[in-house]
Amino acid sequence: AANFHPAVIEAHESGVPLIVLTADRPPELRDTGANQAIDQLKLFGATVRWFAEIGAPIDVPGAGRYWRSVASRSVAEALGPPAGPVHLNIAFREPLVPSGEPVANVPGRPDGAPWVVTAARRPPPHPHDVERLAEAVATSRRGVLLAGWGAGARPETVGRFARAAGWPVLADTVSGVRAGPAAVSAYDALLRVPQFAEAHRPDLVLRLGAAPTGRAASGWLDHSVRQVLVDPDGAWPDPQRSVAERVVSDPDALLAAVAASLPDAPPGDGWFDGWLAAEATARRALDALLDSWDTPFEGRVARDLVAGLPAGATLVAGSSMPVRDLESFAAPRGGLHVLANRGASGIDGFTSTVLGVAAAREGPVAALCGDLTLLHDLGGLLGAARRGLDATIVVLDNDGGGIFSFLPQVALDEHFERLFGTPHGVDLVAVAASVGVPAVRVEKAAEVMPAVEAALDQGRVRLVVVPTNRDDNVARHAQAWDAVAAAIGARS
């Protein structure tokens, strides 16, 4: 039961409906030293939407209605709003195999309907909020739509709002809305240029979902910039404590309503066109530099995956550097589903998440993660070859925790490798082969996507291992930021 805790935490933080069923010893064996018996009552604390101690099965009047009612409530509580995990603790007495004896039950509802029907609905936009936001957007000359993980809106709705408002869309790749002509994908690089960041500070920001993954955009917006946060669950995703207003509403419905309330022609003062011109300049600079490198660069792998996966594919992004490189280097595109465990932003269970996605979704499934992320859930690969699943996992192998090379800890020369770099020295291709998972190692940048495409075509669970160097990776990121700064300076 304790091994479920990382998944429960992620489901709690990310609003994913999850029902956890834990088998338990009956009450008379608890706290008696019985083998494998621990206190499982409310084991996951406040991270569940609802907990119920079911009790051992017993043949008494009303037991069938009780079980059916509990099942219905479990689903309803998990679906929310807000969605999240539910924990049912179920005790069993011996014999722990079917006995053939009848158990009290009652017929279900006609046509297989739930015992209790409930509906999970996001709150619709209030007319007062629509009117107030529409007026604020219409009178703002320098507005920005900022979309992070869990944005909760459709790309076409975001595009419609952007056109009506005349606003650029700064969308993290994991937001699901980095698409369309209004999307500015190079904002992470642009906002690292002090002159550009200062000259393009907005007077109003409409925020959807979590804060951007990287620090550049979050640091650019302080409390002096009016920020309106839209969240359907009434949460407070505001780590910088800079939001001035919070609107509890379905983001997609609110954006659509506001867009429909705006004047026909947005202001044509150059704000929107200036952002798009900077985007075009920055993208040319980034792409030219990345394409000039023959040895693999982690940012290019992220960019190429987003660009090269077929329409209808799903990309699962690992935490630490992969999700940041997607934000920094991936160009806008539609037709790609991007998923990530960004609720707790951990590396727990990443491989298992990818396999779960492959089991549930139609279309090709690919993933991008670091070597430590793969090793942390190596057990997830056990038996993967026999499950009939298709998923290609691209592993950036820099022999350790690459993100720490970007942080102040890198100056701790004496202890850095042991405490933060944590090199593993493991041959990931050999490890994959030991559990029956085919894997290839790719040494050339231009060969990464052909290897991914071949793996997707061949099917099954496969690994594409891309060796990189942590120090070189830091240097190349710096070169990328310098290239954008130089290009923006030349354009100015």
SSE topology sketch:
Layout: H1 5-14, E1 18-24, E2 50-53, H2 63-79, E3 85-91, H3 127-139, E4 143-147, H4 155-165, E5 169-171, H5 187-190, H6 194-199, E6 204-208, H7 215-220, E7 226-230, E8 245-247, H8 251-261, H9 271-291, H10 298-308, E9 313-317, H11 321-329, E10 336-340, H12 350-360, E11 365-370, H13 371-376, E12 391-397, H14 416-421, H15 428-434, E13 439-441, H16 448-458, E14 461-467, H17 470-491
Parallel strand pairs: 1-3, 2-3, 4-5, 4-6, 6-7, 7-8, 9-10, 9-11, 11-12, 12-14, 13-14
Helix pairs in contact: 3-8, 4-8, 9-17, 10-11
What's this entry about, in short?
Helix 13 (371-376) links the parallel strand 11 (365-370) and strand 12. This protein has 492 residues and is α/β, with parallel strands linked by helices.
Fold and architecture overview:
This protein has 492 residues and is of the alpha/beta class. The chain contains 17 helices and 14 strands. The strands form 3 sheets. A 6-stranded parallel β-sheet has the order 10-9-11-12-14-13, sandwiched between helices. It has a 5-stranded parallel β-sheet with strand order 5-4-6-7-8, with helices on one face. A 3-stranded parallel β-sheet has the order 1-3-2. Strand 13 (439-441), helix 16 and strand 14 form a beta-alpha-beta unit. The mean pLDDT is 93.
Work out the strand percent.
Answer: 5-15%
Report, as a whole number of angstroms, the end-to-end distance: 59 Å
Q: Care to count the β-strands?
A: 14
Structural class, by secondary structure, is alpha/beta
Shape: globular
**Count of helix runs:** 17
Mean pLDDT across all amino acids: 93
Helix coverage percent of residues? 25-40%
Low-confidence stretches: none
